[in-house]
Structure formats: structure tokens, C-alpha cells
Amino acid sequence: MGSVTAQDLVVRRAEPDDDATVLSMLRASLGKVDDPHYESFLRWKHRDNAFGASPAWVALHDGVVVGYRTFLRWEFLRPDGKVLRAVRAVDTATDPDYRGLGIFRTLTLQGVAELTLAGDGIVFNTPNDRSRPGYLKMGWTLARRLPVGVLPRGPRALVSMATSKVPASLWSEPTDVGLDARDAFATPDLAEQLLRHDTTSGVRTRRTPDYLAWRTRFEPLHYRVALASEGDPSAGGVVFRLRRRGAAVEAAILEQLVPDVATGARLVRRVLANTGADYAIGLRTGRSAGLLPLPKQGPLLTTRPLAASPPSPGEWALTLGDVELF
């Protein structure tokens, strides 16, 4: 492809007919060639999203898709209760034969320009060390390091936690502890009662029964709900899943929808005791409880203005459910 230049490419919004080529590139780029769940995972994430379908852009050469960039729709509530429309910079891929032409940058900035004109407020993500410099060069700024908290099940679990410093598995370990979240949130009743305990301060995801139903619906993720009282969902609960990280199994605490710190801490300990997970992990924001701070270990949140200014670093009140997986 040495004779091809950036001027030979056509950039436009993605269309359904692009799906087959895009999926092949994403599988190859992200190491998902042998993952049987990957196509349905993308459909759940980008087409079924409670906040709306994901806008995406492609680069073409001679009518063939050679680059792809998509943004996941999201909505936050500001401290005053107003909705902040946002997008998350997520999946992207470039055909290996066309690397070095600036396709990632071109598609990203095209998306940013069109989303700004459409009135979306901000773009955010938690890029890894390899991709973060590229985002910073395109106008992203570091907002804050998100505060991770952990709780080991016991002294032996400390060893497992310390020696399992590898990325967590994408798909979950099955467990029958608690309720199957897909069933629990299939109708809005239980979600409505749990959401009475959602945080009302800071910049937080606009959680609704529809959001909880979508967020926990994808079967290979095996999300569970542990209630403080089986007969009374209004007493609070936590949403969690088990995932393997090296030799350890961690209980990822996505949401703590609880009335007080004591209830949250009790539920985290119960999840550990009943599942046998080595430790629990989550973000120590909002009504997070029972988790001990893990300094300098959280993901770095980055933001960029579109049609609105991003929140200040101290305003963010994110949970693990907002950032894990995507």
C-alpha cells in the first residue's frame, strides 16, 4: 500500500452494509478471532444500548472499508439533575495494510466534529497507556485517576491478589449466588426499588430501570444481584459478577444501591463469603462501601469537550459499572 495516501481515502458515516468488514477488522485488531461471543457482544453494546445506537465512521479505499471508529452513547446527570449527553470513545480498527496513514486520527476527529454539531456534550474514555498519548494530542485531557477499592476475603487471598497482576478475563465465571440480573431486571419493579438508593450527588450515570436491564442483559457476563433482604428489595442490593484475573477470581462490584454504608459493606462481605472469590473490587465513589483504597491503581479518566464543558475532576461519581468492560 506504499502508493496509497490519506487523500485516496473516503471518510463517511458507517452503514449496515459495512458490518461484515468492520467485524473482521475488529476481531483481528483486538485479538477476538476465536471468540464466539464477540459479534453478539458488539450488537448488545452498540445496537441495543439503552442510551441509543452508537454512531460510527469508516474510511474506504476503492470502496473497501479499511478503517473504523465508533462512539458509545451515554448519559450522565449533573449535580443539578440536568442531563449531560456524552459519548465514549471505544472500538476502533485499521486494516494492517493501511496503517501509517493517520486513519485513527482522521476518523476520530471527523466523529468529534459531527457529534459536536449534533449537540452531544462531551466525549470520555479510559484509554490504556498505549492509546492515551494519541487521544491527548487530539484535545483530550486527563480528568482524574478513578479511585479503586478492594476487599480481600482473607490473608491467603492477599497473596492471590498480589500475584495476579494481569488483565481480567472479559467473560465471567458462573455462580448461582444471588439473583440472575437478567431475570431480576426483566420488569422494572425491582430496579425501581433499588434505584431509590442511587446517589444523588456528583456527575453520575443516568440510571433507570431500562438502563439496568440493558447493562446486565448480556448472558456471557453472568451479572448477579445480591439483595440485603430477599423479601424486600427496597432494603438495597449490589450488582456484581465474577471474573478471573490470573490465578485469582475477583468479585467485580458494579453497583451498590444501598441505603447506608453498613448495608453496602455487609453485602460485599456476603458476596465474598458465598461465592468464594478471592477479593472484591470496585470504585470508591458514591455510596461505595466495604472497599479499602488501592492507591495509584485506578484507570485514568480522560475527557474532551464537544458542545459542552466536561465536569471538573472532583465532580465525577462513577461506579465500576460505568467503566468496566467497554
Instruction: Give the proportion of residues in helices.
Output: 25-40%
Determine the structural class based on helices, strands and strand pairing. Answer: alpha+beta
Instruction: Report the span from N to C terminus.
Output: 32 Å
Tell me the number of structural domains: 2
CATH architecture of the largest domain: 3-Layer(aba) Sandwich
Count every helix, treating DSSP H or I runs of 4 or more residues as helices. 10
- How much of the sequence lies in strands comes to 25-35%
The overall strand count is: 15
Sheet with most strands: 8 strands, mixed
**SSE order:** EHHEEEHEHEEHEHHEHEEEHEEEH
| Cα shape | globular
CATH class of the largest domain: Alpha Beta
Mean pLDDT: 94
Radius of gyration: 20 Å
CATH topology of the largest domain: Aminopeptidase
Low-confidence stretches: none
Protein name: N-acetyltransferase domain-containing protein
InterPro entries: Acyl_CoA_acyltransferase (IPR016181), GNAT_dom (IPR000182)
Pfam family, one: Acetyltransf_9
Domain N-acetyltransferase: 9-166
Task: Give a written overview of the molecule.
GO terms for molecular function: acyltransferase activity, transferring groups other than amino-acyl groups. This is N-acetyltransferase domain-containing protein. Helix content is 27%, strand content 28%. With 326 residues, it is an alpha+beta fold. Strands 1, 2, 3, 4, 5, 6, 9 and 15 form an eight-stranded mixed sheet that branches. 41% of the residues are buried. The mean pLDDT is 94.
